[in-house]
Amino acid sequence: MFKKISILFTLVLCVSCNVESPSQAENTPNVISPPQETAGLAPEHAQLEKTLIHNAKIYTMDIGFSTADAILFDSSGRIHNVGGEQAMLEAFPDAMHIDLRGKTIIPGLIDSHAHLYGLALSLSQAQLRDTASVEEVIQRLREQEQHLAEGDWLLGRGWDQNDWPVKEFPSSADLDSAFPDRPVWLRRIDGHAGWANSAALAMADQDLSGDWQPQGGFIHRDADGQASGILVDGAMGLVAKTVPEISPELLQASLSLAIQQMLSLGLTGVHDMGIDQSVLELYQQRIEAGQFPTRVYAFTDGAGETLDWLCKKGAYDGPSGRLVMRAVKLYIDGAMGSRGAALLADYSDESGNTGLLFMPPGDLEAKFDKAMACGFQVGVHAIGDHGNRLVLDALESSIRKFPENPGRHRVEHAQTLTAADIPRFAELDVIAAMQPTHATSDMYWVEDRLGPDRVLYAYAWRSLLDSGARLALGSDFPVEKVNPMLGIHAAVTRQDTKGWPPGGWYPQEKLNREEAVRGFTLDAAYAGFMENSVGSLESGKRADFIVLDQNIFEIEPARIATIKVLQTWLDGELVYSYP
Ligand SMILES: [Zn+2]
Which of 186, 230, 491, 556 could serve as 220's disulfide partner, Cβ 3.0–4.6 Å? Predict the structure, then answer.
């Protein structure tokens, strides 16, 4: 009790500090003036268990899309009431009152497909996203190298040759003159290709020259049969497995940074797509130490050891709903950018290439069976129309075998479909877990890969919704940026943040704002079996909500990407405040 009171008092002081700064006053809701009844009392006598936020524009995101102007929650982190300001002020005079001066509140956002651990790791590496040339990559690598010890690998991720003047894969030679001795290993933006310098290639435990290829992967080679430095999908492990592990100190610091970044952007939860036992234990330790201000719904990394371990233990459901693990992440194919997505017909820009299947369909079904027999949910990465069809076929068969399994199985990305497969999501009650910014990142080149007919069934959010399917939205960070406002903006406009193309890219597939925000709140909660505790602001649910500087439902759609999160509340505690 004392601890709680002091936390709330710090909060009062802290928020008042913000208001005093004139430069920030405009953007900062005027919060908390302790009601006169309690203002003069010593902390131990103050009635601070209940907090009433009023004079707010609250979108509860419940099924009926209700609005309210006041919300009451208590120090256990549960919402008591959501309703009209006048009645609630009269009914709860002893609560701590916070006047939001008309600012907008929506539920805390949930990213239904991302990689929290991956974000933490990426923050310990060079960020190569949005580099305009190989020269800029090398410049950023030189900056990163300053933090490294002798012998450390220089790691990076986020490069995309489609952003460069010469839109071809780079080679080891491009890196060797700057980094002749230190191994350099750089993952492509989609995570489906790696770029190594010669020092890193030399670390591989197999000779990469010749004409052999690994299962589900591709080694790019020059005319002499020497590896050129680009390894795709199943070939990446040849170098990746020789990269030494990150130090525990750097990992803890990077995880704190990653969670802080999520909170500052309004994310109170994330579905972490594919972690192993050691990461689950890392999260558990943080929860025990009181250093895990987020909610993670975790998927195992495949149907191997982690699933065996979890299946034996039973689904993990940690304290305060901060960490739940009862789902399995699988892959059927690769990504479109590196032509690893499995298509039913040739790539339009490379005849004879239909992409890569990571396993035969029978193996996929066997993995589904194993996961469903444990009572778990499956989420399967499928990008190409062939990959998606095989996943739907295998799900159809496995779901029939396990009628006791609670279901809500998911296709992750569900990116390129066919007219025939779109209705199958609703028929099978399979969730399409999609990432709107993938469309706006890929729209510049994806039609080259797919051609004008297939592209009509790509990123087909509206067609899926209209067919009766459920969507859950996310970002796939760190593949895309963490900011969920960019996802909502992309879903609503199908434009980039500069407004291109006019009217939107294949605008018939746009979502409206309510659908887009629901995809990041209640629908994301549903996709993680959490819709009874989070995802909307209703009495009995957890007080996870965010305060926005603009009304997301009323401003021009183009402005949605500029929305700033002023405050983030988790379990009724202020965990982020705009500086
Ligand atoms: Zn992913």
Answer: 230
pLDDT at 124: 82
Task: Match 């290439």 to its residue by tokens.
Answer: 353
Q: Ligand 1 centre from 87 Cα, in Å?
A: 45
Give 161 Cα–ligand 1 centroid separation in angstroms.
20
The dihedral sign for the CA sequence 255, 261, 266, 270: negative
Residue 49 CA to ligand 1 centre (angstroms): 40
Q: How far away, in angstroms, is 273 Cα from ligand 1 center?
A: 6
Residues in CB range of 132: below 8 A, 6 or more apart:
163, 164
Query: For residue 118, which of 254, 317, 267, 290 has the smallest C-alpha distance?
Result: 254
Q: Please work out, in degrees rounded to the nearest 5, the angle formed at the alpha carbon of residue 434 by the alpha carbons of 120 and 545.
A: 65
How many angstroms separate the most distant Cα atoms in the chain? Answer: 83
pLDDT (0 to 100) of residue 252: 87
Question: Could you please report the per-residue DSSP string of 91-132?
Answer: H-TTSEEEE-TT-EEEEPEEEEEE-HHHHHHHHTSEE-TT--
Contact 429, 398 (CB under 8 A): no
The neighbourhood of ligand 1, an ion, using CB within 5 A, equals 273, 476
41 CA distance to ligand 1 centroid (A)? 51
Answer yes or no: are the C-beta atoms of 186 and 199 closer than 8 Å: no
Structure tokens belonging to residue 244: 């030494």
Q: How far is the CA of 458 from the centre of ligand 1 (A)?
A: 17
Distance 114 CA to ligand 1 centre (A): 6
pLDDT at 542: 97
d(CA 517, CA 104): 13
Cα-to-centroid distance, 52 and ligand 1 (Å):
38
Q: How far is the CA of 381 from the centre of ligand 1 (A)?
A: 8
What's the CA gap between 56 and 362, in Å, rounded?
Answer: 54
104 — phi, psi (to 5°)?
-90, 135
Positions in the chain short of pLDDT 70: 1-48
Instruction: Give the pTM.
Output: 0.80
